[in-house]
Design brief:
The chain is α+β, with helices and mostly antiparallel strands. The protein has one domain (7-111). It contains four helices and five strands; from the N terminus they run αβαβββαβα. It has helices at 7-23, 33-39, 75-79, 95-106; strands spanning 27-29, 44-47, 50-57, 66-72, 84-90. It has a five-stranded antiparallel beta sheet. It starts with 6 loop residues before the first helix and ends in a 13-residue tail after the last helix.
């Protein structure tokens, strides 16, 4: 059984990820405004030539939810919210662990070869 999170706690974790996007040079965009209003999607961020968004996923009710970072290099796909999931981080990870995952996802730092073995 994992740590339970309220929706407010999950929102704060995703806000933290978005603050890390900005810290590492990503710019918030308004290109998915309709999807944000209609489907509750979060804002898209552009870093270099790619578009990123954070969301969350919970696979089982009694398990810790995951913070999911999604990405695309196609502005049209980003504008309608169609991004590929590229990393999933347990929401109860420390801020330092989540920040490191954001650096990997943005390409600021390369993924270590054993990254997925240690998750």
């Amino acid at each position: 059984m994992g740590k339970e999170f309220t929706q407010d706690e999950l929102e704060k974790r995703m806000d933290f990820v978005e603050s890390m996007f900005v810290k590492y040079g990503a710019q918030p965009l308004e290109i998915n405004e309709k999807q944000r209003e209609k489907f509750g999607q979060r804002r898209i961020y552009k870093h270099e030539d790619s578009y990123y968004r954070v969301d969350h996923m919970q696979f089982q009710d009694d398990e810790t939810p995951f913070i999911v970072i999604s990405c695309t290099d196609d502005e049209k796909y980003a504008s309608v919210g169609m991004l590929d999931d590229i990393d999933a981080i347990e929401a109860d990870r420390t801020d330092e662990e989540i920040e490191k995952s954001v650096r990997y996802a943005l390409g600021v730092e390369p993924y270590p070869e054993d990254y997925y073995l240690n998750k």
